[in-house]
Structures are given as structure tokens and as C-alpha cells.
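Section handout, structural biology tutorial.
Before the tutorial, make sure you can parse a SMILES string by hand: atoms, branches in parentheses, ring closures as digits. In the record below the ligand is flavin mononucleotide, and the chain has 231 residues. In the tutorial you will relate the predicted C-alpha cells back to the input. Do not try to memorize them.
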Amino acid sequence: MGRQMWKPGNMLYPLPAVLVSVADRKGNSNLFTVAWTGTVCSDPPMVSISVRPERYSYLMIEETGEFVVNLTTESLAYATDYCGVRSGRDIDKWREMKLTPVKGEYVQAPMVAESPVNLECRVTQKIELGTHHMFLARVVAVHVDERYLEENGRFCLSDAKPLVYSHGRYFGIGEELGTFGYSVRSKPAVRKVPAMRQKAKHGKAAEEGQKAKRRKPSKRIPDKRQSSKVE
Ligand SMILES: Cc1cc2nc3c(=O)[nH]c(=O)nc-3n(C[C@H](O)[C@H](O)[C@H](O)COP(=O)(O)O)c2cc1C
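Predicted structure of the complex:
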């Protein structure tokens, strides 16, 4: 079989499909789905989202210069799709999808309580690229769901079953194949799962854990435990 050359287009997949929550100065809020997103700098921690100006949410980001990136999971797949095909101009997506807005620490936009990770972001720059305008933003706070913390304080995102978007389809991430640097390490690292979490994984608590939960306000954690140093 040969290979075909296609006209230029977007084929950089898979990508995370995130829920971006926004608010205006009057306190109205909304959320929408974004797949054109990425990590763009480690220090200072920065992300980008590319948004079409016709989105209702675009106006709110322009007004406040703030948004929250909420990572999505398999159990949030339906809501992620819905928030990407319906507009906040017409409906209250928080209510329709039974998502819980929780107040962040630094920005006006509420965070999605059902998401395992929320990144509070402040826009530093907007680049008008074409169909999409890219907002570059500084991550000013990271909130993580304690359910996915291991005994050693490491956060295990894969336990939350992250959602992936690939060429018009949604997927889970599948089996772990290795950890960062495993190709050059002599001994494979053994992962310690706390007894409490193991029980939750196999018991009724696991199912309940997937249901929407109102999250307690985030505790402050020393910087060194927060982010990885490798990327
Ligand atoms: C999987 C998926 C990914 C999307 N990615 C983007 C994106 O990166 N940028 C964008 O502007 N719209 C994107 N959209 C479309 C918006 O989420 C959609 O138009 C939404 O209804 C806008 O909501 P709003 O009008 O309430 O702001 C995506 C939709 C889906 C389903």
C-alpha cells in the first residue's frame, strides 16, 4: 500500500478536549469545549486556547482576560461533546449538563467541580491567526482532585480516565506503556497505590467516585509538589 498526500489541514491528533469555563464582569458564566489547546511554556507555566471570535465565550474571555481550563474524563465525554455543539447564548450548559461551578482562587470564571484538574488562567496575549484567535495565558493556579493523589503526593491523572479527541472521535487513553524516561532506565518504576484508593477502585466507592461531587476548596500545596519538571 502507498501513502496519500492530502491538502494542508489539521491532523495533529490525538488532543485533549477540554472544557473551558468563562465569566463576564456581571458574573454570568459559561463553558465550552476546546480541542485547539496546548501547553506552550513550562516556566512560567503557560497554555494556549484557540477560539473562533463568533463563540459566545470569546466575548467573555475578551472582557475579563480570564478563563479556566478543566480537564475532561471519560465520564465527562457526553458533557464535553454537548458543550461543544450548543451555545451559552441559548441555554445554561451548567444546568443542562448538571455540572457544578465552584469558585476559583484568582479568576472570576468558575471551575468545573467534576473535572479532575482545573487550571486558572490569565490571558497575556492574543494572536489573531485566522479562523481562530489564540489566547496565550499564564496558569495562575492549579487545582487537583485529591482522589487521584498517591501516597507519595504524586498525582495520577490516568486514574481519572482522561478523555482524548482524535479526528472527530472521542477515546479513553488506554493502557500505560511506560513512564517518562523509561526507555533509558534500568529498572522499571513500581507504582504505589494507597490502600484507601485500591479499596475505592474495586468497591462501590469507585462508582460513586465517578459521580458529580462538590469539591472542597483547594488546599495550598508547596510549589515543589505541584508540577512536573520534565516537560
Ligand atoms: C470536540 C470539540 C472541540 C472543539 N474545539 C474548539 C476549539 O478549539 N475552538 C473553538 O473556538 N471551538 C471549538 N469547538 C466548538 C465550540 O465548543 C462550540 O462552538 C460551542 O458551542 C461554543 O459555545 P459558546 O457559544 O457557548 O461559547 C469544539 C467543539 C467540539 C465538540
